[in-house]
Amino acid sequence: MKKAAFIFLVIAAASLLGPRLAPWDFDSSPNPAALRALPPLTEVPYFVRLDGSLIPIAGRNRHEPTKIDRSWEIDGDIVRFASDYRRLSLPLEELRRDENGAPLIINRRFYLGTDGLGRDLLSRLLAGAPHSLGIGVGGVIGAGLIALLIGIGGGIREGLLDETLSRLTEGMLAIPRLMLLMALAGFFSRDPFTLAIMLALTGWPALARLIRAQTRSLVRADFIAAAHAAGTPRARVVLRHLLPGLLPTVLIGAALRVGPFVLMEASLSFLGLGVPSPSVSWGSIVSDGQSLLLDAWWISTIPGILLATTVWAINFAVPPAWREEC
Questions:
Q1: Are 179 and 271 in contact (CB under 8 A)?
Q2: N or C end of the chain, less CB within 10 A?
Q3: 282 falls in which pLDDT band (50, 70, 90)?
Q4: Residue pLDDT, tens place only, 93-114
């Protein structure tokens, strides 16, 4: 449990600091053709232009596409170097040089490799973390508020109101959630706030049933009966006596649903219904790599492992005794 909580805290911190920690621009590449689908831990040398822009020295071999040709030579006032499946040339005067007059070379490592457009995978995962986790957590918060209102409403008022809310909850549970989200995504904008609202509007029923059952149990308690006998208004009974008793159930139930909400957002992004480009999320990164799965397994596999690890850490960060209650 402690390990899971620690892992989740690390991932959550990375999601908050992701854009600042990213070593590269997540949506661009100095040379998409030369840097595409590089394996993890690949180191690439770069020339540095006078304006500070980088030019990768990364030739490719059709027979060994993951092998990088880092060769270059000076031919008079021209520098010739490998780039993709050809050799390019640049005037020496356009490059920064070291104390010996040779072109300045710096080396950069792609720790998790690159995607099919030559973009650094680590930077894209860090840039996508705020969307993947933020939308999921925001959806859980919204769903918790909706479930609290409906659960308490059905739990304290028997009769027509409870019957109506119960039928509404059962009807929502009967509709496949992903299909409902796909329909909503087709009609509304897909910014992070709207996506979180859509997750909330489709994710409250199970938690509402749990809150309703707990509310029914609490309204029969002696301290609630004593409050009613003392003439305490119903709203005050709910806020001062009932809500504090429901709070542990709501918090635990919401925490256990963060993982499924994150997976649901990833599913929408995988289907192209998540945050629109140039924004990125972990689900869209998995989708980007599916066409290159056999040749560049890391593009889809690494974000998939990150998603699985995140959901595992969230679920196991909650103590087992608390999970059994929900």
A1: no
A2: N
A3: very high
A4: 888 888 888 889 999 999 999 9
Q: Using CA of residue 296, residue 287, residue 125, residue 13, what is the dihedral sign?
A: negative
Determine the residue type at 91.
P
According to DSSP, the β-strands at 86-91 and 58-60 are unpaired
Which of 111, 129, 120, 251 has its CA nearest to residue 192? 129
Mean pLDDT, residues 170-177 taken together: 91
Q: Write down all domains in the chain, each with its CATH number in brackets.
A: 42-110 (no CATH), 121-325 (1.10.3720.10)
What SS3 state is found at 56?
Answer: strand
Distance, CA of 250 to CA of 150 (rounded, Å): 13
CB 125 within 8 A of CB 274: no
Angle between helices 205-219 and 121-156 (to 10 degrees): 40
Q: How many CB atoms neighbour CB 37 within 10 A?
A: 21
Are 180 and 202 spatial neighbours (Cβ–Cβ below 8 Å)? yes
